[in-house]
Amino acid sequence: EAGVVQSPRYKIIEKKQPVAFWCNPISGHNTLYWYRQNLGQGPELLIRYENEEAVDDSQLPKDRFSAERLKGVDSTLKIQPAELGDSAVYLCASSLFSGRETQYFGPGTRLLVL
Amino acid sequence: KQEVTQIPAALSVPEGENLVLNCSFTDSAIYNLQWFRQDPGKGLTSLLLIQSSQREQTSGRLNASLDKSSGRSTLYIAASQPGDSATYLCAVTGETSYDKVIFGPGTSLSVIP
What we know:
heterodimer, A: mainly beta, 7-stranded mixed beta sheet, B: mainly beta, 6-stranded mixed beta sheet, 0% helix
């Protein structure tokens, strides 16, 4: 069974440029999460989807971040424009039905904003 | 607001030693607690999940305990091996259906051959 797939693995951009991350969850998993992890810290939830519905986006900086999960399968997270403070690892995870179950993480996208 | 802390931040032990990692949380109204492992440059791998009604879970050389009332969990690793070197994170899920998962900062473990 394939795990959570993320691309790209690494991205270097200049500030004010846009950037997008893609995630394909484990087949059949209804719940998808996007996290941001800063160096030396645990992941912080940005947004959680139950199928196509964003059920928790309270931590998503909506002035510059956007996300979508069309058809309830794969998802894209976008930053526009990027700021220096956005440098971090962006992790995608999925679980079978809800936030109460084991989450399976992808390898993450390491973003560096110059 | 739930806060999760982990002590120590880093730990170095000789191979073969038994060790304990600690996790504390401020709000005891949790649904479950999970321990994850993260290798450098990689995502997180779930090790153990303890439901709030449980006291402990075991998997191989790993044993996790939960004391919900005191807001603490421990991860016990028996007979440590160099391959156990990684960062270990705990995470709690709140009781309401839409509570998010809150992660601790992790403990970086080095097992010296």
